[in-house]
TrEMBL record:
Segments for region (Disordered): 78-103
A Pfam family recorded for this sequence: Lin-15B
Residue ranges annotated for the Lin-15A/B-like domain, each copy included: 109-227, 264-374
Stated name of the protein: Lin-15A/B-like domain-containing protein
GO biological process entries: negative regulation of vulval development
Regions that span the bilayer: none
């Protein structure tokens, strides 16, 4: 019994001492360190792992034993120039064989005069100031280029243009001079030459005399001779190749009948399609006002129906309806001529202006007389 009591007292003392111990000291006291780490190297069987790759030099020497690697490493590839037109990078799946479509592919460039993509076979590249000057002067005289555009192009180091523009520029200069060829330059008037010389002086940085311009045109004509075979064909030249007998169609069949365009616009008043010559389209508020008032006074349309037509911005109607509207207005006023409208009775004038103000409230009687007179005068030319 005594031993058991002693054990119980010792346990209570330990618990009381644990409660009084600080937290950090209690953690150190309760912590048990693990076993010491052994630093001995483990026994590893190297045969279980693959051998390391050889050094780079040894690896290259092994590859050189093979012919394909030897050719790839030792034989240098031919370097192709950057501006080569037909240069293309082959895909890994490409066998390097060019088809006919690839071999015959054309290269296109943009013409700096007409801004169209053309084949290089139909274009000329010039770096000479004389050729550029003749090209731009002829383009300005022909109306195909503005002076501001030509002023920007003359400063370009290179101009790419169609062959047709060079020959057309020379023709326009000859037409402006009133001559047919370069040999008749002495026969043209001084006024036309002075105008062209002023134009060249505004384009070129250095002034050019008349003799220099003569030499410039003659030299340009000699350079242009080889290009006449590749000038773009016009419609007249293509039509000359057609057969003389145009009465037969393709493969000897008779030609198709001429196509007749149908004019299916319908009148908004009578809902009929009389034809192109008998119908008119107008957005004029004056003509619409005369038409609406005439339809109401002639009892052809009610005010509600005329108001629906008045809501449309564009009106399509027969020409006879507008003529009948003027006649109905005169019949309502019981007069024969338009210049008698000011002499009508006050009752008729009041009823007329009531119909006019229904469609256009701001119109006075004098304004309506003027509108009717102008409409009747224009009807004679319709």
């Amino acid at each position: 019994m005594n031993d058991s009591k002693l054990k119980m007292n010792s346990i209570k003392l330990e618990e009381e001492s644990d409660d009084e111990m600080p937290v950090l000291e209690r953690m150190d006291y309760c912590f048990e360190y693990p076993n010491e780490i052994k630093l001995e190297e483990p026994d590893i069987d190297l045969e279980c792992f693959p051998a390391q790759p050889p050094l780079q030099n040894e690896y290259v020497q092994e590859l050189l034993k093979n012919d394909c690697y030897k050719q790839e490493l030792l034989v240098p590839k031919e370097e192709e120039p950057d501006d080569h037109q037909n240069f293309r990078q082959l895909d890994p799946s490409d066998d390097g064989s060019f088809s006919d479509s690839k071999r015959n592919s054309q290269v296109y460039r943009k013409c700096q005069v007409c801004n169209r993509l053309m084949s290089i076979e139909l274009m000329t590249k010039t770096e000479l100031n004389d050729s550029k000057l003749v090209l731009l002067v002829g383009s300005i005289l022909g109306g195909s280029m503005m002076f501001k555009e030509a002023k920007l192009l003359i400063s370009e180091p290179v101009i790419n243009a169609c062959h047709a523009h060079f020959s057309d520029a020379l023709d326009k200069i000859f037409v402006y001079f009133g001559i047919g060829n370069n040999g008749q330059m002495q026969d043209c008037s001084d006024a036309t030459i002075s105008e062209v010389i002023k134009l060249t002086a505004r384009l070129s940085p250095s002034p050019i005399s008349i003799e220099e311009f003569y030499y410039l045109l003659s030299n340009f004509t000699q350079k242009l001779r080889p290009l006449h075979n590749t000038v773009l064909e016009t419609k007249e030249r293509i039509s000359d190749r057609l057969p003389a007998n145009n009465n037969q169609g393709i493969y000897g069949l008779p030609p198709p009948p001429p196509r007749v365009r149908s004019y299916n616009k319908k009148c908004t008043v009578c809902h009929e399609a009389p034809g192109k010559d008998k119908i008119m389209t107008t957005r004029s508020r004056d003509k619409q006002l005369v038409l609406f008032v005439g339809l109401v006074l002639g009892v052809q349309k009610s005010i509600i129906e005329a108001q629906k037509l008045c809501s449309k911005s564009e009106l399509i109607f027969c020409k006879t309806h507008l003529k009948d509207a003027v006649v109905d207005i005169l019949k309502f006023l019981e007069i024969e001529h338009i210049h008698h409208m000011r002499l009508c009775s006050a009752d008729k004038k009041e009823k007329l202006m009531a119909a006019v103000h229904f469609f256009n409230p701001g119109t006075t009687f004098a304004d309506f007389v003027r509108v009717v007179n102008d409409t009747n005068r224009r009807l004679t030319f319709i």
